[in-house]
Amino acid sequence: MKTYSFAITLIMAATFVAVSSASADEASEMAKKLANPISSLISLPIQANYDENLGSSEEGERWLVNVQPVIPISLNEDWNVISRTIIPLIDQKNVPLPGMEKSGLGDITQSIFFSPKAPTSSGWIWGVGPVLSLDTATDDTLGAEKWGAGPTGVALKQEGSWTYGALVSQVNSFAGEGGREDISAAFVQPFISYVTSTKTTISLNTESSYNWKGNEWSVPVNLFVAQMLKAGDQLLQVGVGARYWAEAPDYGPEGWGLRLQLTLLFPKKT
Are strands 184-195 and 146-159 parallel, antiparallel or unpaired? Predict the structure, then answer.
């Protein structure tokens, strides 16, 4: 089975390469910023997810590599705008039917959050804005063949080593292939993470989505451990985790899966 070996190999190599620990203060600050999805930090997460038991035969397997650049822009003294893009690279076998193999680009998701630079008086950090689902899939089995849009928002609080909050969105299709089912999908991602004294981040979340058209939930639960490191002048975080599908649509993944991630950080120079 072909995979996007360039991304997966990069993630695995980063886990074993000889690196030095980042300075304590710098590592602590960066780990805390990474736990905040709308922090003022440029980052490039490359996330590889493996799932199995897909398709009509339940023999399907899939590698999904998400390239997720995060770019914050300062609007003025009070507001940031944060661009979060998810570029999915998919490699699947025996999906949707036995003997079928497809690899390529899926549908890109683009979110824009407008966020105050200062937390609220009670310490909450928040952001709201639009989310777009782009019809970019290179094969009809890798995407919805629809264009979609809707609102998205996130709220979180950081107290000491803890970060907790939730990200939500709703996407409805407005154009695309007439023969395909329209999109009406809600996404709910509650999350909690803890940064240890060794700058190891332990996180738990669900990336739940609800298909209003099919009345179906997809609920992967992710437990993830990541370590802040420094290779030369490059700050990075590497991590590994397990995912369990508590709920999935017909022909969706079942049981346990794997997540690997490499995140490159680009803090502002002072």
Answer: unpaired
Question: Is it true that the peptide bond before 116 is cis, omega within 30 degrees of 0?
Answer: no
CB 139 within 8 A of CB 154: no
User: What's the CATH code of the domain at 242?
Assistant: 2.40.160.40
Helix intervals (H) in the chain: 5-16, 24-34
* β-strand pairing of 60-67 with 101-105: unpaired
Strand partners, 150: 131
pTM of the prediction? 0.90
Nearest CA-CA partner of 44 in 1, 23, 14, 24: 14
Is residue 162 within a helix (H) or strand (E), and if so which, with residue range? strand 162-176
Q: Which residues constitute the domain of residue 15?
A: 5-266
Q: Closest Cα partner for 228 from 203, 202, 199, 204?
A: 199
Name residue, tokens 């549908």: 107
Total domain count for the chain? 1
Give the tens place of pLDDT for each residue, 134-177: 999 999 999 999 999 999 999 999 999 999 999 999 999 999 99
